[in-house]
Amino acid sequence: MPRREDLKSILILGSGPIVIGQACEFDYSGVQACKSLRADGYRIVLINSNPATIMTDPEMADRTYIEPITPDVVAKIIEQERPDAILPTLGGQTALNCAMQLHDQGVLDKFDVEMIGATPEAIIKAEGRQEFREAMGKIGLNCCRSKLAYSMSEARTALDDIGLPCVIRPGFTMGGSGGGIAYNLEEFEDICTRGLMMSLNSELLIEESIVGWKEYELEVVRDKNDNCIIVCSIENFDAMGVHTGDSITVAPAQTLSDREYQLLRDASIATLREIGVDTGGSNVQFAINPRDGRIIVIEMNPRVSRSSALASKATGFPIAKIAAKLAVGYTLDELDNDITKITKACFEPTIDYCVVKFPRWAFEKFPTADPVLTTQMKSVGECMAIGGTFKEAMQKALRGLETGRNGYGNVPGKPNCSADEFDVESIRPHLATPRDDRIDWIRNAMLVGMSVEDIFEYTNIDPWFLDQLEELVEHEKLIVAAAAKGVAGIDEHLMRHTKQFGFSDRQIAAACPDGTTDWDVRAHRKTLGIIPAFKRVDTCAGEYPSQTPYLYSTYAGTEDEVESAPTAGVIPTSTPTAPGNGKRVVVLGGGPNRIGQGIEFDYCCVHAAMALRELGYETVMVNSNPETVSTDFDTSDMLFFEPLTHEDVMNVIDRIEPHGVIVQFGGQTPLNLARGLKDHGAPLVGTSVDSIDTAEDRELFSKLITKIGIDQPPNGLAATAEQALAAAATIGYPVLVRPSFVLGGRAMEIVYDKTTLADYLKRNPHFSKESPLLVDKFLDAAIEVDVDAISDGNEVIIGGIMEHIEEAGIHSGDSSCSLPPYTLSDGIIQDISEKTRTLAKALNVVGLMNVQWAVRGAKVFIIEANPRASRTVPFVSKAIGQPLAKMAARVMLGETLKDVGVIERLEPPFFSVKAPVFPFGKFQGVDTVLGPEMKSTGEVMGIDARFGCAFAKAMVGAGNTLPRDGKVFVSVRDEDKRLILPLIDRMAGLGYEIVATAGTARALQNAGITVERVFKIHEGRPHVLDLIVNRECRLIINTPSGRRERSDDRLIRSSAATHCIPCITTLAAASATIQGLEMWMKQPLEVTAVQDHHKAFAVEETEEQMQ
Question: Cis peptide leading into 772, omega within 30 of 0?
Answer without folding.
Answer: no
